[in-house]
Each structure stands twice: as C-alpha cells, then as structure tokens.
C-alpha cells in the first residue's frame, strides 16, 4: 500500500502531539479510526509498524489461507460487501476489503506506517501518554487505543536442532513465496487452523508430505462455495436481504455456542457424534482414522472447519506422523521411534505467541507501574477487556477475555470501537485529565468471568492457546457474543475514577 516509513497524506499523520493514538491498522484499529471520525474526534493517528493495513490478513498469505467464519459475518456490520466471491473469502479478498474500507472512510491521511511503538509511559501530571517509537521518535496523546491484535507474532517451536536444518524452513505466517514446493519433500509441523488450510493447498504439488501431528483436532465440514453472480447482484440491489442472511448466520453461530462451550452436554455429545461420522465418511483407513480421532471434548480447542483436509491426508503422497518430534537434523525431522524423516522444506504451522498475557511493548501507567508486571502477577485482567485499572486513558481492543470460540471476532471489536469512542468523547467533552477504571469494577468483571470458565469445554483438559501457563483462560469470553455486545453497549462513567485538570493545582481532583 505504502512504502515503509513513508509519510502518508497531510497533517494528521505528521504531528507529534495528538488527542488519540491508535496502535495497529488491522480490522480493530481501522474500526477505531472510523468510529473516532464519526464521533467528531479527528485529532488522532493510527500507527502501524508494517507498510500496509490489514494485520493478520496482510501477514498470513500461505497457500489456502481463508477465513473460517462466513464473510457476511466476518466483515463490518456497517460496511456490508455484496460481492464476496465465496461464502468463506480468501485472505486476498479480505485484505482488499480492509483497504477499501480505508479508502471509503478516508483514513489514509490518519495512517502512519513503519511506526513501531517501543514504549508508552503515562505522564500523570500532564494527563498524557508519551510514546517512543523504535526509531526514537516521540509522540504524545491524551488517550491510546491499543489495537495490536492477539495472534500476531509467530510461535517458533523449541525443537532441538531446528536451526541446523539445511533445507528451507518458514512459519505459515511468514510464508516464503519464492520457495517452489513443486516436487519437494515437505514437512508440516502442527495440525491447527493454519495447517488444515495449507495441507490441502500444497498436497497436490509436493512429492511427499509429512504431517507431524501432536494432537488431532475436531474437524467439521466447511460449507464453502462460490457465490453465484445472481446472488451478488441481488445483495447489491437489496442490502436488506444480505443483512437478513448475515443475521441468520450470526444467530446460527450463537446457537452453536452451547454445544461447543458447555462441556459434555447432550448437544456437545451430539456434535461429537456428527464429527466422528464425518471422519468415518472421509477416511477409509482404520489406522489413519484412529490417528485422527481426538481424545478430548469438542470445543476445548478451536474446532476446525474444512472439507478438504481429511481427503488430502488420505492421499498416497501423505504420511500423518504421530510419534513425537525429538529433534531436527540438517537432513530432516527425527521422531521418538528413531526414524529420520528426510525433507527439503519444513513448514512451521505452530501458531502464535498469545500476546494478551503480556503487553507487546513496555507500557507504564500510574506511578510507573508496568502492565506486563501487573498481568504477570495477577493474570491478564481488563474491565470489559478494554480498560485496566492504573492505566488511565489506555483502551484495549481484543484485550483479555474478549475473543470468541464460535463466531466472528469482529462482532466484539465493533462493540469495543463504539464503546471506546463514547469513553473518549466523555474524556474530551468534560476536559478530564483522565479516566481510570475502578479496581473493584475490574475485579468484579474478571471474577465473574472466571467463575463461568469452570463450566466450559476450554478448561476440560486439553492444551490450547486459550489457556495461560496456569491453565487459566484469559483469552475468550465465556458467553454469547450478543451478551458481550450488550454489556459493552454504553460507556458508564460511574465505573471509572474521573480526574479533572485543576488550574494551578498539580495533583488530581476527583470529578
Ligand atoms: P494453533 O491452532 O495454535 O496450532 C498450532 C499447531 O502446532 C497445533 O497443532 C500444535 O499442537 C502444533 N505445535 C505447536 N508447537 C509444536 C511443537 N513443538 N511440536 C509439534 N507440534 C507443535 O495455530 P494456528 O493453526 O496458526 O491457529 C492459531 C489461531 O489463529 C486459530 O486458533 C485461529 O484463532 C486463528 N486462525 C484463524 C483462521 C481462520 O480461518 N479464521 C485460520 C488460521 C488461524 P498441539 O495442538 O498439540 O498444541
């Protein structure tokens, strides 16, 4: 979109002092920018460390990359696109959609690329956040919206000898398109949401595909199809029809929440039976079927949608290897049974470091307290997943416990963008020095969520990125998306300590 480090547009992106700084230009940050403008707050900038908008849809370009949530729901509710080419759009089309939103809502002048935040420190007296970028530039803002995403930075596995491998190796989120896989022997490590898209895409072209599976996932068929030109024309002419389809799909996804999340219920057992039947239909070999049969409750890890993953695994040039990987040598992957699996390329489909649990850069709030330290000591907590006590005027998008396991994440981020815009309007209209969420409100919110976690499939005994090192889920919201939207609908100042500027007095005064 723009070259790294270039200055975009006119004034908004070129100053040093702002009312609001948004960090990140993915779906969340762009949504925040749109809402801020609509709320009449135009003195802001969106900082993006890369050279383009799009976040995860800019970074993930692996073959087969697509969304596993239907596009009519995985798009902004206020910006429906009638011409999605497929029911589940591919990454390029989603990336294009985000770019088109940037153009339509005229956000380019507010974007600054190549701007990687290194540190953010709150200056209590001035009521200002002071940000330092990686290149040393200093910016200030009355408020910050951190929209940095949760699954951004690749998790590289700690496999002994990985660095000694003589062939090529890369992570799915850093796909090397200049590496030609045709006729090559390829290892894919991991069988999560990214792997099940890559594997069918590359299987027909490689000579041998070795899939290293640590845990088999629950897989359900994906109703992916090309959207007929007739339907697209109809959606363009009758947006209300597309909205009805969107609402229907959203309602269906909400209905699946119970079977997926309420552990061992009759509905979840029914879903498991359906998934077993699907596996049986797709995989004829009993030995392979046994390897692919999960031994944990459905919903505990993300349920994967694919209609071409099992058929790809059943092909003659594919081996599913379930022996543990013990090391990588210059020639290939060695498993616990002593076999060296010689390959030319290793694809690491090993997921992401969950950056909800630690701030992605140094954030220091009141009295210089570090957000990472607070979260490391007490777990990642934020009121509504957006506000952290002691970090005034700092708002998170997709913060702790605001991810879904069953529907579109954009439903949550839209609610957040709107809530944050309301909060910032209050801050500026009342000329407050800062808004600081009350500790007891944050604790009450967090404790109530964690109490509900105990009854979910997420904590029913599997390993997943949903859980932190203590086995606690600080990633997902344990309720319907509609509940979250309702709870985050209205900014309620009484949940916050409001501090005003008092002329001539440096200490805070309650509003
Ligand atoms: P993931 O779900 O975390 O899967 C990582 C895979 O790598 C797992 O199978 C894991 O095994 C395996 N693994 C990790 N370290 C390993 C090691 N040292 N040795 C062997 N295997 C190892 O990551 P992902 O597939 O990239 O997906 C992450 C998330 O991104 C998804 O849950 C989803 O939220 C999002 N995503 C979404 C879409 C979409 O279509 N919307 C597509 C891709 C990703 P274990 O299961 O045993 O840990």
Notes on the protein architecture:
29% of the residues lie in helices and 20% in strands. With 511 residues, the chain is of the alpha/beta class. It folds into 2 domains: 18-153 and 353-509, FAD/NAD(P)-binding domain (3-Layer(bba) Sandwich); 162-218 and 268-299 and 301-348, FAD/NAD(P)-binding domain, CATH 3.50.50.60. A hairpin with a 3-residue loop joins strand 14 and strand 15. Helix 5 (229-237) packs across helix 6 (239-255) and helix 12 (409-429) runs parallel beside helix 14. Residues 67-69, 151, 157, 159, 189-195, 212, 214-215, 302, 325, 349-352, 463, 465 line the site of NADP nicotinamide-adenine-dinucleotide phosphate (NAP).
Features of this protein?
single chain; 511 residues; alpha/beta; FAD/NAD(P)-binding domain; 2 domains; eight-stranded mixed sheet; 20% strand; globular; disordered N terminus; binds NADP nicotinamide-adenine-dinucleotide phosphate
Question: Which quaternary structure do these chains form?
Answer: single chain
Q: How many runs of DSSP E, i.e. beta strands?
A: 23
CATH class of the largest domain: Alpha Beta
In CATH, the homologous superfamily of the largest domain goes by the name: FAD/NAD(P)-binding domain
Beta-strand content estimate: 15-25%
Helix content: 25-40%
Which radius of gyration do the C-alpha atoms yield? 24 Å
**Number of helices, where a helix is a run of at least 4 consecutive DSSP H or I residues:** 14
CATH topology of the largest domain: FAD/NAD(P)-binding domain
User: How many distinct folded domains?
Assistant: 2
What is the arithmetic mean of pLDDT?
94
| Class per helix and strand makeup | alpha/beta
Shape: globular
- End-to-end Cα distance: 44 Å
């Amino acid at each position: 979109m723009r070259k790294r480090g270039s200055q975009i547009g006119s004034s908004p992106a070129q100053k040093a002092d702002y009312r609001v700084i948004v960090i990140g230009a993915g779906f969340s940050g762009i949504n925040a920018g749109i809402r801020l403008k609509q709320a009449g707050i135009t003195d802001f900038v969106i900082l993006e460390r890369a050279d383009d908008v799009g976040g995860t849809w800019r970074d993930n370009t692996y073959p087969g990359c697509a969304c596993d949530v239907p596009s009519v729901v995985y798009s902004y509710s206020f910006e429906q696109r009638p011409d999605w080419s497929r029911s589940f759009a591919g990454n390029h089309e989603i990336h294009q959609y985000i770019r088109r939103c940037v153009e339509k809502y005229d956000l380019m002048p507010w974007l600054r690329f190549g701007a990687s935040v290194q540190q953010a420190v709150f200056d209590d007296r001035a009521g200002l956040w002071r940000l330092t970028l990686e290149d040393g530039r200093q910016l200030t803002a009355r408020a910050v919206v951190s929209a940095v995403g949760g699954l951004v930075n690749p998790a590289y596995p700690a496999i002994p000898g990985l660095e000694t491998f003589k062939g090529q190796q890369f992570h799915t989120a850093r796909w090397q398109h200049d590496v030609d896989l045709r006729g090559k022997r390829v290892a894919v490590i991991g069988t999560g949401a990214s792997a099940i898209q890559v594997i069918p895409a590359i299987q027909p072209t490689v000579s041998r595909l070795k899939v290293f599976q640590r845990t088999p996932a629950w897989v359900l068929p994906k109703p992916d199809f090309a959207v007929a030109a007739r339907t697209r024309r109809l959606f363009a002419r009758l947006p209300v029809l597309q909205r009805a389809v969107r609402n229907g799909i959203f309602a269906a996804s909400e209905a699946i929440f119970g079977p997926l999340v309420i552990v061992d219920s009759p509905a979840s057992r029914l879903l498991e039976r359906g998934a077993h039947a699907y596996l049986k239909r797709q995989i004829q070999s009993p030995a392979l079927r046994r390897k692919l049969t999960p031994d944990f409750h459905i919903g505990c890890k993300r349920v994967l949608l694919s209609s071409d993953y099992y058929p790809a695994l059943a092909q003659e040039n594919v081996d599913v290897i379930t022996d543990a990987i013990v090391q990588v040598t210059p020639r290939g992957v060695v498993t616990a049974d002593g076999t060296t699996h010689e390959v030319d390329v290793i694809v690491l489909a090993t997921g992401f470091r969950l950056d909800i649990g630690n701030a992605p850069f140094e954030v220091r709030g009141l009295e210089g307290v570090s957000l990472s330290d607070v979260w490391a000591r007490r777990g990642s907590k934020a009121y509504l997943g957006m506000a952290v006590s002691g970090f005034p005027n700092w708002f998170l998008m997709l913060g702790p416990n605001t991810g879904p396991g069953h529907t579109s994440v954009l439903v949550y981020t839209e609610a957040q963008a709107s809530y944050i815009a309301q909060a910032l309007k209050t801050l500026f209209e009342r000329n407050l020095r800062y808004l600081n969420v009350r500790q007891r409100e944050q604790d009450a919110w967090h404790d109530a969520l964690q109490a509900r976690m105990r009854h979910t499939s997420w904590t029913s005994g599997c390993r997943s990125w949903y859980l932190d090192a203590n086995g606690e889920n600080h990633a997902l919201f344990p309720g319907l998306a509609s509940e979250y939207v309702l709870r985050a609908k209205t900014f309620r100042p009484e949940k916050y300590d409001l501090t005003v500027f008092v002329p001539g007095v440096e200490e805070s005064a309650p509003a």
